[in-house]
Amino acid sequence: MTRIALIRHGSTAWNKEGKMQGSTDIPLDNEGLEQARKLGVRLSDESWDIIYTSHLSRAKKTGEIIAASLGIEDIREDQRIMEVSGGQTEGTNEAERIAKWGTGWRQLELGMETEQAVVTRGMAFLDDLMHEHAGKHIVIVSHGSFIRYLLKKLAPGLMQDANLKNTSVTRFTVNDDVWECELYNCTAHLV
Fold first, then answer.
1. With respect to CATH, is domain 2-190 assigned 3.40.50.1240?
2. Is 168 annotated as a binding residue?
3. For 166, which DSSP code?
4. Is 8 annotated as a binding residue?
5. Which of 8, 14, 124, 146 has the most other CB atoms within 10 Å of its CB?
C-alpha cells in the first residue's frame, strides 16, 4: 500500500488579497510559515518517507518546514506539480478581472493553462511517482487549483464544495492502482 498526502502550501499575501497567483513565485507570509510549522508537528505523529514539492517558493518552503519536523532529508522538486498558470490574470483579484475583461473573463483566451493540460502533467507525475516509490508514504506539497484538478480525476465522486485551505491535508491510500481518499481538506492542526 502506498500512502500519499496532498498538501496545499501555506498562506501568502496574495492569498489574503484574493489575487491570482498561478506560476508567479510569491513567498509564504508569516501566517503561512506558522501554518507550515503546525502542519509539520501534526505530521510528525505519522510515518513519511519522502517529500515532493513544486519549485515555487511558497510550496517549497512549506515542504522544507515539514521535512525539518519529520527529519526527512529527501526533498525533491518537480515542476509538473506547480500551480495552474493563470496567464494574464496573474496578480489580479476578481474585481480587477471583471473590470478589465468582464464577468465572462473565464471564457476568454487569456493565456490560462487548461484543465486538461494540468491533469495530463499531474497524472504523468503520479505515474512516475507510483513507479519509483510504490509502497512508500509520500508527502506532496503543491497548490490549490492544481490539487483540485487532480482530485476531479483521482476521486470523481468526492464533493469539493469548498476551496482547499492553506496547509490542508488530503490523503489517499493506493492499492493496485485504486486510489481511496481517506481524508479531505483537513486543517485540524490549525485549530
1. yes
2. no
3. T
4. yes
5. 8
